[in-house]
Write a structure and sequence with these properties.
Elements: H1 18-24, H2 50-58, H3 72-85, E1 89-93, H4 96-107, E2 113-117, H5 122-130, E3 138-142, H6 147-151, E4 158-164, H7 176-185, E5 189-193, H8 198-201, E6 211-215, E7 229-233, H9 235-248, H10 254-265, H11 267-286, E8 291-295, H12 305-311, E9 320-323
Parallel strand pairs: 2-3, 2-4, 4-5, 5-6
Antiparallel strand pairs: 1-7, 6-7, 8-9
Helix pairs in contact: 1-3, 3-10, 4-9
Length: 329
């Protein structure tokens, strides 16, 4: 959300630990003194005068204007996720793909270029391959997650390096710090999809990334109830994306934001248990005669196991496998 429309939370959360941030950050109680976060199911807001309305719309005075881009419930989710990721600001969107599209269409223009890999979420690949070229945006496809392979594709027109780590679905890891150094050496920015780890297990911004993408539909909710997404980054970036949101409107609903707020409260507990469960399952499958190969960074056999220990708090809750006999099995 744009800084001009933010209401300051009542507590300074800079000294809070992650688990406290997940429960307390971003919430400003109303004059009713409610304990839980309210769901602001309203399309618009009432102003005391035409002058106040004009001041809000011009950005001279903070406060909500219209729920497409300034809703208090969505604002709580945005501030809370930004705090957990260690970012300056966040913008909530209607879905994870809406977050990616908002970032790209809100910041790129004809002639810009990005570098990515095909080994990521299929809808993201489809967006990059079939839609971005229509707007004069060139996508260079790197082979895997070797920094050297990506470096060969970066040029003066490169604006973004876009990666998932771990990737979907083969659970490959990218060295975030190395990719951040590559992007910054060419005046570009690094975007990391942090969906599989969440800020509980991995903090890309602390490792040098500039922007974090989330599908809140997945772990942030955790129970398959709602669809949503988010972009976390600098205040300047989020101000730009808020301007895009104000016009294009791929916004998060207040009800979905409230569900995601509740999801964040239990995120740490769930991610630790997911990782523990996945580790046990991976170890079992790794020795199963019907399984050809298990892809899980918690296994010593995984090529990125050392990187996972350096970059992530835990290996995570997702694994992939190859079954003996392939499709016939």
């Amino acid at each position: 959300m744009s800084k001009d429309n933010l209401q300051e939370p009542e507590n300074d959360d800079r000294l809070w630990a992650d688990d406290t941030l997940a429960v307390r950050s971003g919430f400003e109680r109303s004059h009713f003194g409610e304990h839980g976060e309210p769901i602001m199911t309203t399309s618009s807001f009432v102003f005391s005068s035409a002058a106040e309305a004009a001041a809000r719309f011009s950005g001279e005075k903070p406060g909500p204007i219209y729920s497409r881009f300034t809703n208090p419930t969505v604002q709580i989710f945005e501030q809370r996720l930004a705090a957990m990721e260690g970012g300056e600001a966040c913008i909530g969107t209607a879905s994870g793909m809406a977050a990616t599209a908002t970032l790209l269409l809100g910041t790129l223009q004809q002639g810009d270029e990005i570098v990515a890999t095909r080994n990521m979420f299929g809808s993201t690949v489809n967006l990059f391959k079939n839609f971005l070229p229509r707007y004069g945006i060139t996508v260079h496809w790197a082979d895997g997650l070797s920094v050297d392979n990506w470096a060969a594709l970066v040029n003066d027109n490169t604006k973004l390096l876009f990666l998932e780590t771990p990737t979907n679905p083969l659970i490959e890891l990218a060295d975030i710090r190395a990719f951040a150094d590559l992007a910054h050496s060419h005046g570009a920015q690094l975007v990391v999809d942090n969906c599989f780890c969440t800020p509980v297990l991995q903090k890309p911004l602390a490792l040098g990334a500039d922007i974090v993408i989330h599908s809140a539909t997945k772990y942030l909710d955790g129970q398959g109830r709602c669809v949503g997404g988010a972009v976390v980054g600098s205040q300047a970036l989020i101000d730009t994306l808020t301007s895009f949101m104000r016009s294009a409107g791929p916004c998060m609903s207040p009800f979905n934001a409230w569900v995601f707020i509740k999801g964040l409260e239990t995120l740490s507990l769930r991610m630790h248990q997911h990782s523990a469960n996945a580790g046990e399952l991976a170890a079992y499958l790794d020795n199963h005669p019907a399984i050809r190969h298990v892809y899980y960074p918690g296994l010593a056999s995984h090529p990125d196991a050392d990187l996972a220990r350096r970059q992530q708090k835990l290996p995570g809750g997702i694994l992939s496998m190859e079954v003996e006999g392939d499709r016939a099995a």
